[in-house]
Amino acid sequence: MEEQNTDVIQGTLDMLILKTLSLEPMHGFGIARRIEQISRGVFKVNPGSLLTALQRLERGGWLDAEWTTTENSRRAKVYKLTRAGKKQLDSQTADWSRRASAIARLLKAEG
Amino acid sequence: MPVWRQFVRGLRTLVNRDRADREIADEVESYLEHSTDELVSSGLSPEVARRVARLELGGATVVREQVRSYGWENVIAAPLSDLRYAARRLRASPGFTAVSVLTLASGIGASTAIFSMVDGVLLKPLPYPHSEQLVELRHTAPGINIKELNIAASLYLTYGEESRVFQDVAMWTPGSASVTGLAVPEELPRLSVTNLFLATLGVQPALGRQFTVSDDLPESERVVILTDGYWKARFGGNPGAIGRRMILDGNAYEIVGVLPPAFQFMDHKFALLTPFRLHRSEVRLISFCCQGIGRLKPGVTLAQANADVARMLPMAPGKFPINPGFSATMFAEARITPTLRLLRDQVVGDTGDTLWVLMGTVGIVLLIACANVANLLLVRAGGRHQELAVRAALGAGSGRIARELLLESGLLGLTGGAFGLALAGVALRLLAASDIAHLPRIHEISIDLTVVAFALGISLAAGLLFGLIPVLKYARPQLSNALRSGGRSLSQSRGRHRARNLLVVVQVAMALVLLIGSGLMLRTFQTLRHVDPGISGANEVETLRISIPEMQVKEPERVLRMDQDMLRKIEGIPGVAGAGIINWLPFEGGSNDPVYAQSPPTREGVTPPIRRFKYISPGYLSVVGTRLIAGRDLAWSDLYSDKPVALVSENMARELWHDPRAAIGKRIRASLDDDWHEVVGVAADLRDDGIDQKAPGIVYWPVLQKSAADTEASVVRSVVFVIRTRRTGSAALLQQIQQAVAAINPNLPVADVKTLGSLYDRSLARTSFTLVLLAIAGGMALLVGVIGIYGVISYTVSQRTREIGIRLALGSPPDEVTRGFVRYGLVLSSVGAIFGVAAALALTRLMKSVLYGVSPADPMTYVAVSAGLILAATLASYLPARRAARIDPMQALRAE
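Predict the joint structure of the above. Result:
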């Protein structure tokens, strides 16, 4: 059986994180799981890349982070989207759909 | 905002890496826990869940490192940790660090202080917009032997009307005005200017208006502009002062403006600015009274401006009538030619020579300091020789080791620089407070950005310079050699000594150059001190200026009687030995005009040589201590009678009549229609233009002159009272003098109180300033050089302890050992001295302009200074050498 590629498409991880967090604030592991669930296992997030991306997005001012205690009394660093992050998500989403539909058109084009 | 956030976060990480790391670890840990929890809830046992979670994560350490490597701070973290390491190493040897930093601080501090002077005085433009367009309107008149001629009202008007190159021209002259109508009358310095003066400089008053053309007309109302300082002192900074009137010299002046606080004009201290109010119809051709400035049109060169002025000069005789008593051809024969120069050059004068000599001097001090620190670093690196060799053997690249050594020296350089900058700040404050230098533009000298950049630059350069020497020697060590000789067997190899010896030789040579420089300045100073200035006991002569305006006393003779009454009152003060009057004090100049002698007669149409004119009262000469060579002093009866008399200086008498005694009874006059004045006395020469300048030929005229031709007498209204007393400078004396003056006329202000001694000192100021700074630099250089020799010898002694021990044990006499080391020091200093003398011969020629009466190659100075330096060096090597002789052989052999 051929192994399915579950890598996140290059350059889209930031957008996926922002999108996920636009639903609700979440900690790192939660984000990873949510991306896997929503993509129905198509994308599996590498934890190292995820945590680095979170660091980058936070420094960029698109996320705020706060240490809290979760319902099962675990400590977790919970991220939430800032106003700037929301804007960034919108522009990235628009950009992505423009490019995705272009690719789709290209692939559908015949002879 | 995001950039800011990036920066702050990065910085926070840098400052506290541990905390940042802990947070990343916590987050990774929490990730693992959540992952485990989920696996447990899907039915795995906790242990298995944990293992699976770990597998999924792919190694906690790897993830931590991955997250940690994000951020700009990682780029600089490595060099930063090197820096921290270097700082720690320096802190570990506080003695070495303190000595190095202090040495560097003195070198960098001295260089920075002098540079800030060079910058403030020479490099910065004058504080006016487009100051490069400002020129001083000067002339020369070779036809009548006048090298420097200022400007005449006739020429000012001609240039203003005819010029093609100037935007504006203006004329100004310093003077003073009595301000009355207050409790105490005041004599204030003022500048008389033509209406475009401020416009020419490009300056707007901070308050009120500039002068206008009509202000310059004699029939319009008198107006005055105040300086900011005087406005604040007198009117408390009240803007309502504009439009008010004040009484100057008995006339009402309307205040029309206030100058900006920062306004400066050629270091002139003045409180008031008033228009000239020229009567154009009364201007005669020859009236060289004032100074002229002009603003060139953009792009006009000095040469073009000179050419244009030369074109305009012949127009003046057509515009203005010749003065009575002068022949019409005189103007042409004087061959007046323009010598315009930039206003900046006029302001700076010949200070440039002095400052560049000093800059060179402190540069040498800095080099010596660097050499010394390099030497210390060599010793230090020598101590780490083995460590470095081992590290190189274990694979440390030479680049890495070089970076480490350079960081250390760079850090030393910067720390030294920071202290040096502080030192320079203190030095400048002291300098400004003492005013020893009499530098032009002293208010513009400050530690500004340029100076800080300079200090930073030389700190880094110095660090690099002395850091490179150990790097070149040790960054790529010969392994076997280092590892072997670091053990116990060998004495020092020659190779390691050579660099240190070389540095000491260089230090001694440079110290010698500086010491010879200060020696030459000292000789100059001594020579100048021994020059007879033409006055004596100047410190016991108090001087003050009193002016009697025409509004108060009209008749010239009454003015003199009032002066005489005041003199008598002052002479009655206890402790006053005598008092007299002169218009311009010694060293303050006077007017310069031609003098005609009756015999030998002056040929028709030829202008005789120019002499310095001074106007005096009887008794003046004896008060200031100018000797009478022949004849007699003026008598009061000479002044009140209509028999015109005068005194001349000895050099003038010799020039005209070959013998001072022959001068008595000869007759001279100042112009063709002047009365003949009989020479009744000859006074000793006076170095009026400065101690180091030739004494000019001087005529002393009486302050009151009655003309036989017409009944109108003329009197000098603004005069300086000279008072001989041991009580100079005391407040009580000044008060008694003021009372004496007020007893005669309560409306006369006493101005410009100073001793004649201060004028004498001032004429030596440039020399003493250079001498003091060179002596400080030379002293520093000597100290550092001697310490260098001491260091090398004592290091050598400590390195050769074993060898000395063996020699002593084998029976070598201790004196022999001592002599050996002293000889070593002697050779080093002698070689240094030879190079130093050679360098001094080349370099001191640059000092020629600041020397007087001594050749730059003065053999006595060279021999004395070299001998002194070698003696000091020998002493410095004797101390450690004696220690060598005291070594106990047994201990020395056991020690290692």
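The interface with chain A takes residues 1-2, 5-6, 9, 24, 26-28, 30-31, 33-35, 37-38, 56-58, 62-63, 66-67, 70-71 of chain B (CB under 8 Å).
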